[in-house]
Design brief:
By secondary structure, this protein is of the alpha+beta class. It is built from 5 helices and 7 strands, in the order ααβαββαββαββ. The relative contact order is 0.14.
């Protein structure tokens, strides 16, 4: 992202460079703040994810669209989640797709309740299905770290969660299931 800012400065695109720097600074402050916490409100977590996605859209020249949908039975201020669990999966989808096609891709993130759990779904059409030999691995460093974080939280008895990555004919679906945790 900083390289993109430098490119904008070199091209004398001050407005775009300023947008990159402002967005990057806001994102870094939020990420640093979240690293100190075991849980944040769902609203805070979605805000950081939105900032990240906006910055990636800007960086990629709007080569993808995204949508965040929160179920009507969910108050994001009242639910607590482990921070930044979906971000590595969104990042992987975006980075795996750039340069593959000139067609814009789509990323949909849904938050819903299901049988006493909170389900975070990420669906993308940004990359080819698993049968495509050119597809990058479903296990990036960020997703491996996320799985390790969840395993550690479960081992400490703090939080049980599951992650499923389901290849689709175009793109994939990531299902992250967490126990409901309400703010105190």
């Amino acid at each position: 992202m900083l390289q993109n800012t430098n490119d904008c400065v070199q091209a004398n695109e001050r407005g775009l460079a300023s947008s990159f720097l402002t967005g990057f600074a806001r994102l870094m402050r939020a990420v640093l703040e979240h690293t100190r916490k075991d849980e944040v409100s769902l609203a805070e977590d979605l805000s950081v994810l939105r900032d990240y996605l906006d910055l990636e859209r800007l960086r990629s020249g709007a080569r993808f669209e995204y949508r965040l949908e929160v179920g009507s039975d969910i108050d994001p201020e009242d639910l607590m989640v482990t921070p930044m669990l979906l971000q590595p999966y969104a990042e992987q989808a975006i980075w795996n797709s750039l340069g593959r096609t000139d067609d814009p891709g789509h990323l949909v993130i849904r938050v819903q309740r299901s049988q006493g759990t909170l389900v975070l779904l990420l669906e993308d059409d940004l990359q080819s299905g698993a049968t495509d030999p050119s597809i990058a691995s479903d296990r990036s460093e960020g997703t491996v770290i996320t799985e390790a974080r969840l395993a550690l939280l479960a081992k400490q008895g703090k939080r049980q969660a599951s992650v499923k990555v389901i290849p689709m004919p175009v793109g994939r679906r990531v299902e992250l299931t967490l126990p409901l945790s309400e703010a105190a």
